[in-house]
Amino acid sequence: MNNWPTFSDDERAYARRSCYESPSSWFRCEMNLTGAVDGDWRRIRESVLRRDHFKCVECEMPCNRAEADVHHLLPRSAGGGDEPSNLITLCDGCHAAHHPKLAAGLARRAIERWAARLALWLDREGTVSEQSQNFGPALRLFRDGQLPVVQAALTGRSLLVVSPTGFGKTLCFQLPAVLRRGVNVVVSPLKALMGEQVSSLFRHKIPSSYINSDIDPEEKRLRYRQLAGNQLKLLYVAPERFFVQSTNEQQQLRSVRPAFLVVDEAHCIDQWGRDFRPEYGRLKEVREALGSPPVLAFTATAGQEMQKRILASLGVPDAQVFVRGVDRPNIALLRWSVSINERPWAIEQLCRVQMPAKGKVMIFVPTRKVGMGLQKYLGEHGLETPFYHSQLGKPWEREQLLKRFVGDSRPEVDRIICTSAFGMGLDVPNVRMVIHWQHPSSIEDYLQEFGRAGRDGKASVAVLLFDRKNPQRDISLLRFMADRAVETAQLPTAAAAAARSHKTAQIDKMARLTTSRGCFRESLVGYFTGPKQVARRSFSKWLLELVFADRAVRQQKVSCCDACQQRLILRRGPIAFVRKVLGLRHKEMLAAIRGDKYESSPEDIVDFVAKANASKR
Predict the structure, then answer these.
(1) Which pTM does this prediction carry?
(2) Contact 181, 259 (CB under 8 A)
């Protein structure tokens, strides 16, 4: 007897439809990988099709195995079973007639099936995988840009994906892992992240696990037994796990032959990066021990030079690179030249701009001293703002402040001063403004920090303060901090000199970008993607994206940057630019007329003015 989950009648019919119409793909994806369906159904289905001579019993249209549907005369919910006497062969049209409530869904599934077959048949470049036919109802809503990554992975290529947090990187490696046979090893640096992702996979009935120092020896032994028995689809480990003292544990891990080696937070590989971890630098050795599987590497930020260093370190220099989410059209970029002494005042003026729909503000500062001074200034001017930094109280106090900013705890915080470590891995959708006291030490860091704004696709603004007349003050502070970091690392003399030189070069690149006169957005995007090229998509790729990719969530386009809006800023000032980006001019006009804080749209203003004029007649 099949152990079906409890669904409504419509959901049952829709679920069965998925497996009836393409049994080979569905069973590869579900039965072989998750064990969710009894294998006897394939035998029963085949016997029914043969009995009915592969014809629809109602219209007598011939049907092949992939197209035929097997229908229950008496639904399961009414006590019907899988006996051949209760099953008949139907074509798509006749089957839809038996399920009028699901007609649109059944039609869409048929279109998806034929689109996948046509794309595979027309593919001449080897960019479309046979597993595309497994993209069913539960997997159809890819975000923009995810489908090409999944397709490339399924063709067995190594790849590097540069994409900000919140853009769906996890699906880009979990889906190929599920659709391929065998286990997949995921290298992740954070224990908390391992637990979260494994829990999420469990909810989707995907067998997965993690191994780290938090689990006891007996539990670890059982998990290694599952791994040896090929009972897992994804295994999460930290890179240090491959180099533990236990020879037996090393052998158990290195004996695995995974379908993919997934490297999350791949920027940790770069020896010159801020988050470099030595064991990440040895992943090439790990990959060779695992049989040299394809590598799927993911990072939130990496310029072209860092991309090359990451791929070289992994031993896959020819891997395909995908850069997504660097150009955020919903975030306007404003560089505001302000001397250091006037920056508290400038930030105060920005904080007094009313954020639409309870939007949040993040203010990044380079040091704890600067942050405390800014916090004091804002407090004295009636803008109490908490300051998050590494030495703030106890761990639970920092966690509480973080929860208050996210909105998971009360009283909620809508504005916060923070250092660069704040918000790593967080996905707060309604950050409307990100302010930088000065430019950070690299372009990669700047992208990651200002990219925390506007993740819901709505209009937002990133404000970068600098001093065009005296840029050396900001640069000197960053170089001093870089020297301290190199000294703390206690590197050999040659390595220390190389590290210092690299950090200085990164600071200088960011400083030049900040003071450049051209379009800030074009310069920023070009650093990550190189010269702008017209992307050519094959018909097969276009067809699959048309059918499977979800374009329901779009990013709102706003004013580009200060260079492109120079006339407005010279005439009305930087604050007017910010108000325009956030759409506050109409709202504030209405609020001034009414004398309250009511937020409305331009249509409300027209309606209000029309009523006011009518009342005067």
Answers:
(1) 0.67
(2) yes
